[in-house]
């Protein structure tokens, strides 16, 4: 708990959705932040006699929720948005890998800053980035991404990706954009050793994250899992995203993706996978049995015509599920509020129809569900005393939301709500919809410039 001498921020007169185990809500309540922890949450006004109160916020007309948790992204894609807009996954990858293979450190830094800024100003307080493209001679890409997260003030997990199956080995990426097995493992271990923080209030963590079954060797998957467990970090990859992936795994390995992952050590409570669209009952049962997590990316799945993931069935089986933006080359909006809404709407087009998900389940996916997938549900993802002070004040008394009586429904199904304030680790990073940590206009200019530079280089290549 925070020490009694900690500086306090008191937030009052707001609706609160705690997203705790009992889904406790308050129509008008308070939150007290002490240092980097939540000290108290409850109905009515804050306790009297609090010491060291440095700020009081009258949050009338607002809903306070835990900060949103993004469990899957590819920051570098911010500078290749709007391309290959009518492709399925494999054709999209073929179209874009020649461009992505020419990224360098300044491009990745700018793209990471753009991706993080867009998410943070829209209520994301924790983000995970799966970066797996490391062209030869491109610089310190992992350091650039981690530096951008620190600058923006967002809690961050770098899923240090890798690929060792290039075009000459039947993969999709150009050979000069992939690493050797030994090089990928060594670089991943070095990144974990240098940057991973295992402490309760860690701002930077690292996961081991070979890209996908069709871009990495079996040995990279197997040894990557062994490396992660030796170092005590989590594992992340793409899984069961498309029907083409299912066909690829059966032709090459003689089994479906889930069985293949299990054979290489890639099911477990320390693993989360992106997409998981094409899962049969046996696959879902295996994920539930092993507590393997899922990053559900509804907008990207729709953009690439991948299909509708069976999220209601996963939740019913006990599979941990969070939400992901995915890369902005397949989800140009680049923010997570869209995923709250689309998770609800898209899943209602599936077999369960109107009973698939409700607004509170969608909010749980985007907060506590994401924290669980990242292995941090004891620290973030709900508003409870002792947890880290990652929270958002959503303004719901304007034209866009004022006539919706239920604030959670307003947040999830309404237009994107303005963020009056966002706190990460007790530090405010957004005020009245603008970032306090970086110059948004400067970030926009740098992303535009680097996108144009990448396009020129790719055209020459």
UniProtKB/TrEMBL annotation:
Protein's UniProt keywords contain Metal-binding: yes
Keywords: Hydrolase, Metal-binding, Zinc
GO MF: deaminase activity; hydrolase activity, acting on carbon-nitrogen (but not peptide) bonds, in cyclic amidines; metal ion binding
Keyword match Hydrolase: yes
Pfam (any one): Amidohydro_1
Gene3D superfamilies: Metal-dependent hydrolases, Urease, subunit C, domain 1
Origin: domain of life: Bacteria
Domain Amidohydrolase-related: 63-408
CDD domains registered for this protein in UniProt: ATZ_TRZ_like
PANTHER family per UniProt: AMIDOHYDROLASE-RELATED DOMAIN-CONTAINING PROTEIN, AMINOHYDROLASE SSNA-RELATED
The protein's name in its UniProt record: Cytosine/adenosine deaminase-related metal-dependent hydrolase
């Amino acid at each position: 708990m925070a020490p009694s001498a900690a500086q306090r921020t008191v937030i009052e007169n707001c609706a609160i959705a705690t997203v705790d185990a009992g889904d406790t809500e308050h129509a008008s309540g308070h939150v007290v932040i002490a240092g980097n922890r939540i000290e108290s949450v409850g109905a009515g006004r804050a306790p009297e006699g609090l010491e060291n109160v440095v700020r009081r916020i009258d949050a009338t007309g607002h809903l306070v929720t835990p900060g949103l948790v993004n469990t899957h992204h590819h920051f570098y894609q911010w500078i290749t948005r709007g391309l290959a807009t009518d492709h399925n996954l494999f054709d999209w990858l073929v179209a874009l890998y020649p461009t992505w293979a020419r990224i360098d450190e300044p491009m990745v830094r700018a793209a990471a800053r753009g991706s993080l800024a867009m998410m943070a100003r829209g209520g994301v307080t924790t983000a995970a980035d799966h970066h797996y493209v490391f062209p030869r001679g491109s610089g310190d890409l992992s350091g650039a991404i981690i530096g951008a997260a620190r600058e923006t003030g967002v809690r961050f997990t770098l899923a240090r990706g890798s690929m060792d199956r290039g075009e000459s080995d039947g993969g999709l990426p150009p050979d000069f954009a992939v690493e050797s097995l030994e090089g990928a493992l060594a670089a991943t271990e070095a990144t974990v050793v240098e940057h991973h923080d295992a402490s309760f209030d860690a701002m930077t963590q690292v996961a081991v994250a070979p890209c996908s079954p069709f871009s990495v060797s079996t040995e990279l998957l197997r040894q990557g899992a062994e490396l992660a467990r030796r170092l005590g970090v989590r594992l992340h990859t793409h899984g069961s995203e498309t029907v083409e992936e299912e066909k690829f795994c059966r032709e090459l390995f003689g089994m479906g993706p889930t069985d293949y992952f299990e054979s290489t050590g890639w099911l477990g409570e320390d693993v989360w996978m992106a997409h998981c669209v094409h899962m049969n009952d046996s696959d879902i049962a295996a994920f539930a049995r092993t507590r393997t997590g899922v990053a559900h990316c509804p907008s990207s799945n729709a953009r690439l015509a991948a299909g509708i993931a069976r999220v209601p069935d996963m939740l019913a089986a006990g599979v941990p599920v969070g939400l992901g933006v995915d890369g902005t080359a397949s989800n140009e909006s680049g923010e997570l509020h869209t995923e709250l809404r689309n998770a609800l709407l898209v899943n209602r087009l599936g077999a369960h129809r109107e009973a698939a998900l409700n607004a509170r389940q969608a909010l749980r996916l985007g907060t506590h569900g994401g924290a669980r997938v990242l292995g941090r549900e004891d620290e973030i993802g709900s508003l409870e005393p002792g947890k880290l002070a990652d929270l958002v004040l959503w303004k719901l008394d304007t034209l866009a939301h004022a006539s919706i009586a239920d604030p959670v429904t307003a947040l999830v199904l309404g237009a994107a709500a303005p963020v009056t304030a966002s706190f990460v680790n007790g530090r405010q990073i957004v005020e009245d919809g603008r970032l306090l940590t970086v110059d948004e206009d400067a970030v926009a200019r740098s992303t535009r410039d680097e996108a144009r530079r990448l396009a020129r280089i790719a055209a020459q290549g």
